[in-house]
């Protein structure tokens, strides 16, 4: 072994001598095309530890020396690191096409021409890892195999996490947003909320929620702040729009993530001082921006941009936040004043929702001639808010003399579920591919509320499954081909259906019908009951959303009836 080491040292010494004497590389000579040296430099991970970078630097130095050898030495080319961590350029380009076709419609982060033009730039390699993570699930070719694809995705997830721990920039946060989309698609749990916490923190650190207005200085200015007031002055209009779109994407993910976990949203609407995103065709054009008014009443029309559905979706997400705050608000059910105040807030929000929808422009309210993912998400989110509110109003989880079930809420909830079912019926499989895990969550909420109504006696016949349940489950099964969370939603529903004829009722029905529980809490408790259906990783997770179930003593059928002796809605 010592002889081998000595021989290697002699060879490297000879290589250095030959390279020096021949003067193969002239640093003053401009390169006419991409070289192996530049490819090697591009492949260095930004997040690599110092020791790893040192070893890679030494490897690249050796590579430079070997590349400078004359042909007669016949030393083969060394593979670049990009081949080890990322797929080939051909596969990456195909993944980018899949991203813009299937994910961009509801995560419109990037400027398409600029993104494609700078696809393989050294400083943007972390974005390629993000594309690998979210787009490989839509791969249509037999090669690479599923095992190889999974390995690429695993490596890219790790690369994004390692990079974003040490770096906080626009590009790294864009990659982290793509990783958050992937995590939400996996389903609620510790990994998802940890990645979302990183994403929210990064958005605050780089000041995404505050837009730059060249017309004048800010009205309210903090005496101490981390942001540089001149930070955005050197950004191009395309980069400014990318920052804006990144924030609104994070804003949307935060709303759905918080609702699915039963917690407050991390981004305070009152802290947002930003313009709405521009339309794709207006990107980089001198168009007067419209500012988001978080503290004012939600508008039903946008004067400058009636056709930009994203504006209406942003406004609706503010209503989703308000409804979520109402439902998770702690309440003393033994005090009539508290219950009456909560009911008044419920009615005001219900009226605001109806007014907002009725005043929408016709092109937003009515179904477009061609499928539009953003239009579908607007209507799905609107029905989601109604279903969550009416389900709680129809079946309060805590019994109180002062907060009784509403007699009209079941019918309103049933109509909202029917609307979601109709949305799914109108969607083709390839159109469902353009709707992400947030749409799967809407379908899950609709299906669960329908089962609650069904098992509590609202449906006429218990023996037959409600007509609208099958299209909802069919949509979940189709979505589960791309997003694992949809499979978990479907498994929980299927557990109730498979055990509906058991003596004493379906397995775990009391837990399922407890409207205080989120999907994360249901996964933890029904995972053991469902056996192989729910992954074991969730059955042992800590559920900080658990609540006492001592008051759930009523039978599982016939709940709607004698208690409906008052109407407050």
From TrEMBL:
GO cellular component term of the entry, any: nucleus
Bias (Low complexity) ranges: 40-52
Compartments where located: Nucleus
Renumbered residue ranges of the record's region Disordered: 23-52
Signal peptide: none
Keywords: Metal-binding, Nucleus, Transcription, Transcription regulation
InterPro entries in alphabetical order: TF_fung, XnlR_reg_dom
GO BP, sorted A to Z: DNA-templated transcription
Molecular function terms from GO: DNA binding; DNA-binding transcription factor activity, RNA polymerase II-specific; zinc ion binding
Xylanolytic transcriptional activator regulatory domain span: 192-283
PANTHER family with a match to the protein in the record: ZN(II)2CYS6 TRANSCRIPTION FACTOR (EUROFUNG) (PTHR47338:SF20), ZN(II)2CYS6 TRANSCRIPTION FACTOR (EUROFUNG)-RELATED (PTHR47338)
Protein name: Xylanolytic transcriptional activator regulatory domain-containing protein
Annotated source species: Scytalidium lignicola
């Amino acid at each position: 072994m010592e002889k081998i080491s000595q021989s290697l040292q002699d060879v490297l010494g000879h290589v250095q001598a030959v390279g020096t004497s021949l003067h193969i590389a002239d640093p003053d000579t401009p390169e006419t095309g991409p070289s192996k040296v530049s490819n090697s430099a591009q492949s260095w991970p930004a997040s690599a530890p110092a020791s790893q970078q040192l070893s890679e630097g030494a490897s690249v130095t050796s590579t430079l020396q070997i590349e400078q050898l004359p042909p007669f030495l016949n030393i083969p080319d060394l593979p670049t690191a990009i081949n080890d961590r990322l797929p080939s350029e051909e596969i990456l380009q195909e993944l980018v096409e899949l991203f813009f076709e299937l994910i961009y419609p509801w995560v419109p982060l990037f400027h398409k021409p600029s993104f494609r033009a700078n696809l393989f730039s050294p400083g943007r390699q972390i974005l390629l890892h993000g594309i690998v993570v979210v787009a490989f699930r839509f791969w249509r070719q037999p090669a690479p195999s599923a095992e190889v694809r999974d390995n690429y995705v695993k490596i890219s997830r790790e690369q994004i996490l390692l990079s974003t721990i040490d770096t906080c920039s626009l590009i790294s946060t864009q990659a982290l947003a793509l990783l958050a989309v992937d995590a939400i698609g996996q389903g609620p749990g510790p990994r998802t909320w940890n990645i979302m916490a990183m994403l929210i923190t990064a958005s605050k650190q780089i000041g995404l929620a505050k837009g730059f207005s060249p017309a004048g200085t800010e009205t309210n200015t903090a005496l101490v702040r981390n942001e540089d007031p001149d930070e955005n002055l050197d950004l191009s209009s395309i980069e400014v729009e990318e920052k804006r779109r990144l924030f609104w994407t994070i804003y949307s993910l935060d709303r759905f993530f918080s609702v699915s976990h039963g917690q407050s949203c991390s981004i305070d609407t009152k802290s947002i001082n930003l313009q709405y995103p521009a339309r794709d065709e207006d990107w980089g054009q001198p168009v007067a921006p419209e500012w988001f008014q978080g503290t004012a009443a939600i508008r039903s029309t946008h004067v400058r941009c009636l056709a930009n559905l994203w504006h209406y979706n942003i406004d609706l997400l503010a209503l989703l936040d308000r409804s979520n705050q109402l439902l998770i608000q702690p309440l003393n059910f033994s005090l009539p004043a508290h219950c009456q105040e909560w009911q008044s807030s419920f009615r005001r929000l219900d009226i605001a929702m109806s007014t907002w929808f009725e005043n929408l422009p016709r092109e937003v309210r009515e179904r477009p001639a061609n499928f539009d993912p953003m239009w579908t998400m607007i209507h799905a989110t609107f029905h989601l808010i109604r279903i969550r509110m009416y389900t709680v109003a129809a079946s309060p989880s805590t019994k109180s003399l002062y907060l009784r079930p509403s007699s009209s809420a079941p019918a309103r909830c049933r109509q909202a579920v029917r609307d979601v079912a109709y949305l799914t019926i109108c969607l083709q499989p390839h159109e469902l591919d353009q709707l992400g895990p947030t749409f799967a969550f809407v379908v899950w909420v609709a299906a669960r509320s329908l089962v609650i109504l069904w098992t509590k006696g609202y449906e006429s016949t218990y023996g037959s499954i409600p007509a609208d349940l099958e299209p909802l489950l069919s949509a979940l099964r189709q979505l589960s081909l791309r997003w694992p969370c949809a499979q978990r939603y479907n498994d929980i529903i299927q557990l109730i259906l498979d055990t509906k004829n058991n003596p004493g009722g379906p397995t775990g029905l009391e837990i399922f019908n407890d409207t205080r529980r989120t999907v994360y809490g249901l996964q933890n408790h029904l995972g053991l009951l469902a056996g192989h259906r729910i992954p074991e990783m969730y059955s042992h997770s800590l559920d900080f959303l658990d609540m006492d179930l001592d008051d759930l003593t009523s039978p599982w059928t016939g709940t709607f009836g004698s208690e409906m002796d008052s109407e407050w809605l």
